[in-house]
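Justification of computing resources. Each target in the renewal requires a structure prediction run like the one illustrated here; the chain below, 97 residues long, is used simply to show the kind of job we budget for.
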Amino acid sequence: MEKPTVTVDILGKSFNINCPKGHEAELKEASEYLNNQMRELRASGKVIGLEKIAIIAALNITHDLLSSRRYARSNEQQLRELTSQLDAALGQQTKAI
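Resulting structure tokens:
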């Protein structure tokens, strides 16, 4: 199965990336997000060098992803606990009727 090639721009450089069919828009969105993150780092003047900008951007994005996953797991656990409490309360109400 042939994978389409998508051209993305990162800090003014074009890259041809193979992408699973049907995921081209997601790749474009991801590349735009990465490009924006890298541009912000470069504009800050605190990070110099393309390689270092890429690494810092990757670390920032990874940190955000992992934080979001922890937040989602925490919310999932809270939802389970609330569901359990609700089930227990409904069970007690059913017994009282």
